[in-house]
């Protein structure tokens, strides 16, 4: 049918009027449910959602021939308290930092057996990826192993009690970055941007995504599975417990992270940027920060308006650096660009 | 794992080989862990009242028929069938309704309201083109109902009464049925073949129509005709007049007569310079008809300001485009042969016009008065209990007059005088009349909770501009009575229907099914069937409710 769905656009998960081929994997009544129910993730867990989205897409892309290696972390703990497992695909857990190495071994074994049709996914949280497993991951990239590594980034060690990781955003409160005295949460000037580190390895594919944009996430997994060699997907997954956000707002919070420019959504091949998901309704960072108690200290009395302004400058820098404000396309999105630029000028004139 | 050689067996239970340290349980699925026990709130699918339905005077379930129309193809007939459950005049109302539904539409806050009226017209025209028929009437009830007046209220009531199996006789004093739809609304807004087609469809249900037979003594008719009940819908066809000094010398006519003359092919002689006096929709109809009859630009005189004009903005805009001239804050103080005298008014602190004494003389060959209408209620004489005053009949909440079994609706009852209101009256009166006949108490159903804009999660709706109806070229419109507003083609009708936000009612977008982190939303049926919550596993996080685009899920506390 040529008439577009202006009722839902492409933003909803599905639509009763869509042909099955046009619908998302998540809309399928017979979807894989790679991570099945009964798992012990908290109410409104973004990581549980992100893992099902990503692995179901990988199952669809490979016709069900996919093996997953898992790092230690929330995802592993809540899905496999012995003797129960929520996984409905071949799945292995070894250590906190060695998921990329385990996946490398599985891929090597499959190659040795000539089973190149079976694909390997490794996955972990930001702690296992950005901190503890970084050496193994960099090695996997460097060797060119045929593995898709998926990092579910909830921006701290949530499983052990919300300790800071190198992916914790500036100014956020964690158990180890309490806002005390002049210190306003996680210090500025530290942390690692792993998508950019992965790009620096010039591997075939690097992409970021959020749980708020399923279609985008599924497309990126499908693209990754078309390619061979090391690939990296970094998915932002809000954590209601660690972020102090309303469990019902998990998707809304992820959407705000992208729409404020704080979390740029892009993809790159061979170290070169190939696309960004433009911001649709630009909002000031404050709209995002206020949804989470980990930033509550910024808004108390007297609060830290200068820190909020500094975070706005970080968002502005992302917007400029990644080109997140695309010109409105012909497909219905009206020109809101003028309003958008006004937000930028009023909320963060100087560059950070 | 019942195999005796399995390594997953504990030595303690059946004497198998010893197992590694700490592994004493069989591996199982997390399905054993019923996380529904964590829940303090549960999601529940609800149906809220969409603002369009809330605003529709005819009582249509607009959201429902748009939902069906969104399928296109066979969905159009389903949509039409859903529409005529309430209103048997979609092609007529798709042309003449002032569509309060579109003003109320939540989409107005996003881009522009959905063009509900154009889709209604498209469906009405499709039905005529394809010969779709109304639902078959119910089995004969043996009751006889007299409907007085074949206008929108009377015919709507006749339709709904026929569906309930009653024998309906409709009487009207005019030569043809339709009431003000035929004799008041100009043909450039409502072509007569469209009106005829929709009336014929109602008559095909077995409704007996007797035109040219006015009812002058209701009491006698009821007694002699053996009727069990009656519905009065004689409209408001008497023009209100004012005394204009010198008016006898001038050519003064009333708008109702003028429009009736135009409709019956006997237009009055107006001369070249026409002045229309009044500020309602009838005044605009008269002015726009005069524009077409005379070929020159009439002047409309109204005693209040433009902002206080009761006519609908859309009609006013089209009249302005057609070259009608306006003189606000003015009254006609005297009229003579070939001229009138106009007095300028000013608004006092209460917004009421007050004379200023400033007079001006204007040339005018004729004056058309459009100062409101009232009902001819002489047929009620001799009926006990009926209360009437100021040209209207009083009715109770069931639309019954003071006389038992005599109901009334439309322009002859106190209400806004609009065809859509009259159609709604006909439907409601038919329901109550049926209940009265069967001695069953009837009350209007309670209105649901309104699905306001705040109930929506608009992120999921793409922005799209509204399809603008192609307008006839102004020049052509001015000289003929050809229809002014053209219909949508099938493509744009589908496009408009799909712009509906489905406020407060699930439209099967799969969002709840997709966003649940616990896979606890189930899709038991084919697309379009309702979803279900798997309460064994739902943790009650509320993401489904937060991400529902149309506000069709609410979280309700569990009883603990």
Q: What are the low-pLDDT stretches of chain B, counting only 5+ consecutive residues below 50? A: 1-13, 468-473
Tally of separate helices of chain A: 12
Uncertain stretches of 5 or more adjacent residues of chain A: 329-340, 346-352
Write the CATH fold name of the largest domain in chain B.
FAD/NAD(P)-binding domain
Overall description:
The complex is a heterodimer of chains A (352) and B (560). By secondary structure, chain A is α/β, with parallel strands linked by helices. Chain A has one domain: Thiamin diphosphate (ThDP)-binding fold, Pyr/PP domains (Rossmann fold), CATH 3.40.50. In chain A, 35% of the residues lie in helices and 13% in strands. Chain A contains 12 helices and 9 strands. In chain A, α3 runs parallel beside α5. The longest helix of chain A is centred in the last third of the chain and has 18 residues. The N and C termini of chain A lie far apart (48 Å). Chain B is of the alpha/beta class and 560 residues long. Chain B has 5 domains: 32 residues, no CATH class; 64 residues, 2-Layer Sandwich (Alpha-Beta Plaits), CATH 3.30.70.20; 117 residues, no CATH class; 157 residues, 3-Layer(bba) Sandwich (FAD/NAD(P)-binding domain); 132 residues, FAD/NAD(P)-binding domain. Chain B contains 19 helices and 22 strands. In chain B, α13 links the parallel β9 and β10. In chain B, α7 packs across α17. The longest helix of chain B has 19 residues. At the A-B interface, α1, β2 and α9 of A face β1, α17, α18 and α19 of B.
Question: What's the gist of this structure?
Answer:
With 352 residues, chain A is of the alpha/beta class. Chain A has helices at 46-62, 74-79, 99-112, 126-132, 134-143, 194-200, 214-226, 240-243, 250-259, 285-289, 305-322, 337-347; strands at 66-70, 84-85, 91-93, 119-125, 147-153, 205-210, 231-236, 266-269, 272-276.
Task: Provide keyphrases for this structure.
heterodimer, A: 352 residues, Rossmann fold, eight-stranded mixed β-sheet, 12 helices, 35% helix, B: alpha/beta, 5 domains, five-stranded parallel β-sheet, 19 helices, 22 strands, disordered N terminus
């Amino acid at each position: 049918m040529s008439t577009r769905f202006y009722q839902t656009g492409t933003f909803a998960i599905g639509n009763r009027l869509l042909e099955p081929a046009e619908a998302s994997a998540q809309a399928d009544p017979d979807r894989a449910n790679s991570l099945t129910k009964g798992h012990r993730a908290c109410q409104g867990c973004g990581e549980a959602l992100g893992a099902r989205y990503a692995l179901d897409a990988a199952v669809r892309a490979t016709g069900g021939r996919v093996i997953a290696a898992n790092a230690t972390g929330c995802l592993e703990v809540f899905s496999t308290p012995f003797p129960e497992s929520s996984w409905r695909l071949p799945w292995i857990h070894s250590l906190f930092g060695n998921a990329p190495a385990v996946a490398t071994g599985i891929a090597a074994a499959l190659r040795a057996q000539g089973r190149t049709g079976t694909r390997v996914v490794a996955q972990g949280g930001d702690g296992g990826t950005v901190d503890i497993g970084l050496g193994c991951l960099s090695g996997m990239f460097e060797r060119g192993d045929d593995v898709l590594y998926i990092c579910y980034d909830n921006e701290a060690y949530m499983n052990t009690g919300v300790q800071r990781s190198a992916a914790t955003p500036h100014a956020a409160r964690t158990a180890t970055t309490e806002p005390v005295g002049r210190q306003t949460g996680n210090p500025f000037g530290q942390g690692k941007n792993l998508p950019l580190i992965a790009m620096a390895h010039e591997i075939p594919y690097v992409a970021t995504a959020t749980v708020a944009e399923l279609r985008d996430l599924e497309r990126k997994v499908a693209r990754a599975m078309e390619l061979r060699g090391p690939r990296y997907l970094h998915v932002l997954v809000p954590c209601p417990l660690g972020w102090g956000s309303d469990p019902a707002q998990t998707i809304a919070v992820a959407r705000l992270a992208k729409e404020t420019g704080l979390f740029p959504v892009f993809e790159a091949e061979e170290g070169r940027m190939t696309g960004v998901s433009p911001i649709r309704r630009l909002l000031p960072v404050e709209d995002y920060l206020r949804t989470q108690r980990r930033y509550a200290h910024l808004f108390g009395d007297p609060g830290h308006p200068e820190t909020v302004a500094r975070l706005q400058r970080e968002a502005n820098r992302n917007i400029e650096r990644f080109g997140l404000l695309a010109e409105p396309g012909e497909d219905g999105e009206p020109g809101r660009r003028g309003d958008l630029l006004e937000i930028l000028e009023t909320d963060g004139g100087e560059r950070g | 794992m019942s195999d005796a050689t399995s390594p997953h067996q504990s030595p303690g239970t059946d004497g198998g080989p010893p197992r590694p340290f700490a592994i004493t349980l069989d591996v199982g699925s997390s399905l054993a862990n019923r996380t529904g026990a964590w829940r303090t709130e549960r999601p529940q699918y609800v149906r809220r009242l969409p603002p369009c339905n809330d605003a529709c005077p005819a009582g249509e379930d607009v959201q429902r028929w748009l939902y069906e129309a969104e399928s296109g193809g066979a969905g159009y007939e389903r949509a039409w069938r859903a529409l005529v459950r309430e209103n048997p005049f979609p092609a007529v109302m798709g042309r003449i309704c002032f569509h309060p539904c579109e003003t109320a539409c939540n989409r107005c806050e996003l881009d522009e309201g959905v063009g509900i009226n154009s889709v209604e017209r498209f469906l009405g025209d499709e039905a005529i083109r394809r010969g779709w028929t109304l639902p078959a009437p119910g089995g004969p009830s043996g009751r006889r109902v007299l409907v007085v007046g074949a206008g929108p209220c009377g015919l709507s009531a006749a339709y709904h009464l026929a569906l309930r199996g009653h024998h309906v006789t409709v009487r009207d004093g005019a030569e043809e049925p339709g009431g003000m739809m035929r004799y008041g609304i100009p043909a450039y807004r409502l072509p007569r073949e469209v009106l005829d087609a929709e009336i014929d469809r109602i008559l095909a249900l077995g409704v007996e129509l007797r035109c040219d037979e006015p009812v002058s003594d209701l009491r006698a008719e009821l007694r002699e005709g053996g009727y069990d009940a009656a519905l009065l819908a004689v409209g408001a066809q008497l023009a209100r007049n004012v005394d204009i000094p010198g008016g006898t010398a001038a050519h003064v006519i009333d708008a109702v007569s003028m429009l009736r003359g135009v409709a019956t092919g006997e237009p009055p002689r107006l001369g070249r310079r026409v002045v229309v006096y009044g500020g309602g929709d009838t005044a605009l109809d008269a002015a726009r008809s005069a524009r077409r009859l005379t070929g020159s630009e009439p002047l409309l005189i109204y005693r209040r300001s433009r902002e206080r004009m009761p006519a609908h903005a859309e009609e006013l805009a089209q009249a302005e485009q057609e070259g009608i001239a306006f003189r606000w804050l003015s009254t006609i103080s005297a009229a003579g042969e070939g001229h009138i005298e106009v007095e300028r008014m000013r608004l006092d602190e209460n917004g009421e016009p007050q004379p200023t004494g400033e007079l001006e003389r204007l040339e005018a060959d004729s004056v058309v008065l459009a100062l409101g209408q009232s009902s001819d209620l002489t047929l009620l004489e001799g009926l006990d209990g009926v209360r009437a005053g100021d040209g209207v009949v009083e009715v109770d909440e069931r639309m019954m007059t003071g006389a038992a079994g005599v109901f009334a609706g439309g322009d002859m009852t106190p209400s806004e005088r609009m065809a859509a209101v009259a159609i709604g009256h006909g439907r409601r009166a038919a329901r109550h009349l049926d209940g009265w006949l069967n001695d069953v108490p009837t009350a209007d159903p309670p209105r649901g909770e309104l699905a306001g804009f705040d109930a929506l999660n608009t992120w999921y709706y793409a922005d799209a501009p509204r399809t603008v109806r192609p307008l006839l070229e102004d020049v052509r419109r001015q000289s003929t009575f050809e229809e002014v507003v053209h219909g949508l083609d099938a493509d744009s009708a589908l496009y408009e229907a799909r712009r509906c936000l489905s406020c407060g009612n699930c439209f099967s977008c799969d969002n709840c099914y997709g966003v649940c982190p616990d896979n606890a939303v189930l899709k038991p049926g084919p697309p379009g069937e309702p979803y279900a919550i798997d309460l064994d596993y739902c943790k009650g996080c509320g993401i489904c409710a937060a991400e529902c685009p149309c506000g069709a899920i609410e979280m309700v506390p569990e009883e603990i």
